[in-house]
Amino acid sequence: MKRKKTVLAAVMLLVALCSGLSCKKTVKDDERNGFLAFRFDGNPRELSKVSQEMPDTNDFLITVTDEDGKTVFDGIYCDIPETMEVPPGSYGIYVRSEDFSGIAFSSPQYGDEQCVVVPPAGVMTVELGCRQINSGIRLDVSPGFLSEYPDGVLFIKAGGKRVMYAYTEKRIVYFEPGSVSVVLYDEGKETVLLTRTLVSQEILTLKISVSENSASSNGIRISLDTSRVWTNETYLLGDEGSKGSSYEDALTVSQALASVGREDVWVSGFIVGGDLTSANASFDPPFKSASNLLLGPRSSATSRDNCIAVQLSAGDVRDALNLAEHPEMLGRLVCLNGDIEDSYYGMTGLKSVSDFVLK
Predict the structure, then answer these.
(1) Which residue(s) pair with 347 in the sheet?
(2) Who's near 276: CB < 8 A, 6+ residues apart?
(3) If 0-12 CB within 10 Å is exposed, 13-18 middle and 19+ buried, where does residue 282 land?
(4) How many angstroms separate the CA atoms of 288 and 299, rounded?
(5) For residue 335, which of 251, 276, 242, 235 has the smallest C-alpha distance?
(6) Are 271 and 329 in contact (CB under 8 A)?
(7) Which is it for the CA torsion 145, 147, 152, 155, positive or negative?
(8) What are phi and psi of 256, to 5 degrees?
């Protein structure tokens, strides 16, 4: 009986050891690095209710942190690798058009914030939003208010800070989402006329006037201009219809991809490759073909996705930019003038390129 127990114990120990080895192998497999890939979502030609132009997404600030809060990347979008190798785990992604805090005129902030999980040996593609993330307010002050309070001063107050709002001011004041107040300072006295709580992406326009028979603050009327209240709207890249008329106002690669059919337009991007075929492209020298280029949204692009193919016809542009003769052009930012067509080597293409400007 004692011998049977000893044998049974040995078998159980062997099973336990085998199980332990199996778990260790699984853990090791699970610790294989994965990859983070980034791109902006949405149609860049989609219009919003504001006429402001979005800043170039290449210049957006992007911060990537791991689950311990350690910064993995902190810089501008065009400098981040197209695929970033990272250990598996959770990552925080924070992208914004500019750093913003406090309160300021004409300072819309766009961006997105996400938490993603990267699987072992897998690729997590992060679809970055491009939406307004601060709030705004604009006042429409009636002539009657100016007559009744010629020495009065209006302020917009938010987050413990404030800015003066002139009676003739037309710009929007932006602030971090939360409580905002309209304050009147007159004859040495401050009066809070109105307080509202605004969320991100919300812009509020208020009409301020006075009752006909009263010059006191009790006679002040504030009404909501419903044509100027934009709540939970997606603020994308704005109307690109007039963009691209000059190299100073060139379309980005992402905007060009959504502008098929436009002619004599300027497009700005990074020279990231060449030697195009219907299914492939080369991203590393040496290059053989002088007749085409691949223009990417950032200098680190290593995939045809989100890039535009460029036809280099014989002439000055080809002589100056082709990678076969000028491999030093790889990674350069360039503006090209041409026609955007739906297919060139199986991609959206820029053809009939007639001029260029190196940046």
Answers:
(1) 344
(2) 289, 292, 294, 309, 344, 345, 347
(3) middle
(4) 20
(5) 251
(6) yes
(7) positive
(8) -65, -35
Domains of the chain: 34-132 (2.60.40), 135-228 (2.60.40), 247-358 (2.40.50)
Q: State the residue for tokens 């925080």.
A: 92
Question: What is the pLDDT at residue 143?
Answer: 87
Name the token pair of 338. Answer: 């041409």
116-143 pLDDT, tens digit per residue, is 999 999 999 898 877 888 999 989 888 8
Helices within 289-333 (DSSP H only): 316-321
Predicted model pTM: 0.56
Residues 154-167 have pLDDT tens digits of: 999 999 999 999 99
- Which residue's entry shows tokens 């062997």? 14
CA dist 143 to 167, 208, 209, Å?
A: 9, 10, 8
**Which residues, given as ranges, of the chain have pLDDT below 50?**
1-29, 43-52, 213-218, 224-240
Tokens of 262: 């436009």
Q: Which two tokens stand for residue 288?
A: 């053989």
3 state DSSP class of 172: coil
Q: Determine the length of the chain.
A: 359
